[in-house]
Fold this protein.
Amino acid sequence: MSQQVKAVVARAKGAPVELVTIVVPDPGPGEALVRVQACGVCHTDLHYRNGGINDEFPFLLGHEAAGVVEAVGPDVTGVAAGDFVILNWRAVCGTCRACLRGEPQYCFSTFNATQKMRLEDGTELSPALGIGAFAEKTLVAAGQCTKIDPAAAPEAAGLLGCGVMAGAGAAINTGGVQRGQSVAVIGCGGVGAAAIAGARLVGANRIIAIDIDDHKLDVAREFGATHTINSKALDLDGVVAAIRDLTGGFGADVVIEAVGRPETYQQAFYGRDLAGTVVLVGVPNPQMTLELPLIDVFGRGGALKSSWYGDCLPSRDFPMLIDLFQQGRFPLDKFVSEQISIDDIEAAFEKMEHGEVLRSVVVLP
Ligand SMILES: NC(=O)c1ccc[n+]([C@@H]2O[C@H](COP(=O)([O-])OP(=O)(O)OC[C@H]3O[C@@H](n4cnc5c(N)ncnc54)[C@H](O)[C@@H]3O)[C@@H](O)[C@H]2O)c1
Ligand SMILES: [Zn+2]
Ligand SMILES: [Zn+2]
């Protein structure tokens, strides 16, 4: 048996997304069927619709979601019908090199449902990040479901499934930010704001937010920025001087780049203290290149890292951050700029491009 549900599909490069009926199979071995309650609109969905990820159209968009497991395949033991879950795009496989050396947060696998969701005419859909949650129901690998406290609001909880985890994890896990450190975050959209919130959570006492948009800097203060720099009219030296001014002349211990551009990466590289850490969480496009004097890479020491999904381990990090959210110590709900219906995604893309929102979240009845 299969079910027909409403879902949002990108059929062709750059074309507006469409709300259509899709066919979702019953869960087979290792799979779970999830009734989606909320799903955030992430920049990566727009990248998919614009052909910036790959050409495997049609895409079933949406990947920042929370919902309730409706049914599981015959051999599934980790989750059960009725569980409230966040969907993750890092289902740990347990058998790759990273898993075997005890570092499942770097699991190399992409562990997704094996059966395909389809359009009514039988065309196979490519779910965004193996999830596809702008849909009333979606089919995922059971390991993509991370069980959390059902008391958490779905529209906030789902955001941990991508951007908020990526940003907070870039600070906490990848950057290893510690109490008393100085942190600069370049680019204060949803991901950068989450990096700021993460840095505050672990006790950074100087958090410098850098953006070209004053409104984003106001928002950054709400998430914990202690200082802000509007870099719109500044060149590389100007940004670096501004960061040094705020850090006793040294530069920040950790600089997080959450834009994904060579010029902001250079700001991060020179804006950190000697032996400091740069974390690249912004996603560059494949054409971008970086030029740096090799002697500076050598001479300045420290660590140059990039962060995928905040180096998170969903089973460890999602329940922990939900706990802290419910205790009022991690402002997950503040990332929800607006709640929208499933046929409003094109408008949400536009607001995102104009910098009007941190996150629009689709809420399903
Ligand atoms: N690494 C991961 O796992 C992961 C996960 C999700 C998203 N991302 C990436 O993180 C990046 C940020 O995502 P987002 O959702 O916050 O996007 P966003 O569009 O909401 O935010 C980007 C911010 O950068 C600012 N900005 C643009 N150019 C700038 C410049 N030259 N200097 C300073 N600030 C500048 C914008 O004003 C905006 O506030 C994207 O590249 C996204 O693809 C990475
Ligand atoms: Zn693995
Ligand atoms: Zn995303």
User: Anything to note?
Assistant: The mean pLDDT is 96. The radius of gyration is 20 Å.
